[in-house]
Amino acid sequence: MSRTIGTTNETSLHRQLKLDYAGRGGRTEVEVAGFVVDGVSADGRYVEVQTGSFSLLRKKAKTLAALGGLKVIYPVAVVKYLEVFDAEGGLEYRRKSSRPGNVWDLFAALVYAPELPRIPSLEIELALVEVAEERVRDGKGSWRRKGLSVRDRRMLSLRERVCLKTPGDYLCFVPFAKGEEFTAADFAKKARIRVRLANKALHSLTSLVILERIGKRRNAYVYRLIATSRTKKWKKQP
């Protein structure tokens, strides 16, 4: 049996979300067609909570969507608090992170499996959450965190749910009108994200046949909008 996600090393955030989305009368950690599914709601819909790359979901997603429909939950920490503990477990300090997430973080994960939104009966839902990240001063963590290890992440509140049911829903991410031509740098500036993330978004949006690549401007690829039906724009994230 293939086990993509189990309870080993599961964060509190992951556990809280799978219980929330499975809902009353639902079940968690259910074996289905050789996979372990995070949750099954009372109406029989499968739920997967994914906190990293979507690449591991490819085979699993197609199977579950075909069997009864699949909702993939991707948490985005729009507010994050850092809690640092000493080696003995005592809290040293708690502060609000200066680098909160936003809806564009989805493309850092989706770029590795941009075909997922095209799978029938599969939807992706962004869970915009407020979280606390617990770090311990044990000297074993990344040098970027100055040796602090991440011990756990827990959800403080679920602020908003953003559901993307069809490829057309991803038009919300295109800050250009039909006929306008733009590069990754143009896209990044208008969306207020970094160029690296803009490139990932462009790759996914092109795979969804929302955008098309039409040529080059010097060394940069040029894109334009194909689709014309547009849903509401994202409101500014907290």
Poorly predicted regions: 1-5, 231-238
- Overall, the morphology is globular
Written as H for each helix and E for each strand, in order along the chain, the element string is: HEEEHEEHEEEHHEE
- How much strand content do the residues show? 35-45%
Number of helices: 5
How would you describe this structure to a colleague?
The protein has five helices and ten strands, in the order αβββαββαβββααββ. The protein is an alpha+beta fold and 238 residues long. The protein folds into two domains: 12-165, no CATH class; 170-225, Orthogonal Bundle (Arc Repressor Mutant, subunit A), CATH 1.10.10. Strands 1, 2, 3, 4, 5, 6 and 7 form a seven-stranded mixed β-sheet that branches. A hairpin with a 2-residue loop joins β1 (27-32) and β2 (35-40). The radius of gyration is 19 Å and the shape is globular.
Secondary structure topology:
Blueprint: H1 12-22, E1 27-32, E2 35-40, E3 46-49, H2 58-68, E4 70-85, E5 91-96, H3 106-110, E6 122-137, E7 148-164, E8 181-182, H4 184-191, H5 195-207, E9 211-217, E10 220-225
Parallel strand pairs: 3-4, 4-6
Antiparallel strand pairs: 1-2, 2-3, 4-5, 6-7, 8-10, 9-10
Helix pairs in contact: 4-5
